[in-house]
Write a structure and sequence with these properties.
21% helix; 23% strand
């Protein structure tokens, strides 16, 4: 069971921001911005490469909820959304997740 699956199962605590039957959003333990929230599906999907016909509705739900989560966080002046896919992109947890970063003017360069 991966780290994020353990968080979903309640085996590892998290600072929850939002939860429903399909997704969980919680604060990153090593924030890269004043507001840094991870949004994950409760169903294990290894990365963006694992999105398929059976789970695409969960991913669509994530994208439906991200603007609401960002608004609740007060990110009214914008935010960045990031999802690393695979080792070359530095995906450290093999469970699909999206980083919502905001709360300050972010650097223009992404690399």
């Amino acid at each position: 069971m991966c780290l994020f699956c353990k968080i979903v199962a309640g085996e590892i605590p998290s600072n929850k921001v939002y939860e429903d039957d399909k997704i969980l959003a919680f604060r990153d333990i090593a924030p890269q911005a004043p507001s840094h929230i991870l949004v994950i599906p409760k169903t294990h999907i290894p990365s963006l490469d694992g999105v398929n016909e059976e789970n695409v509705e969960i991913v669509a739900h994530i994208f439906k909820m991200i603007p609401k989560i960002a608004a609740e966080e007060g990110l009214t002046n914008g935010y960045r959304l990031v999802s690393n896919c695979g080792p070359d992109a530095c995906q450290t947890v093999p469970h699909l997740h999206f980083h919502i970063l905001g709360g300050a003017k972010l650097a223009g360069e992404m690399a």
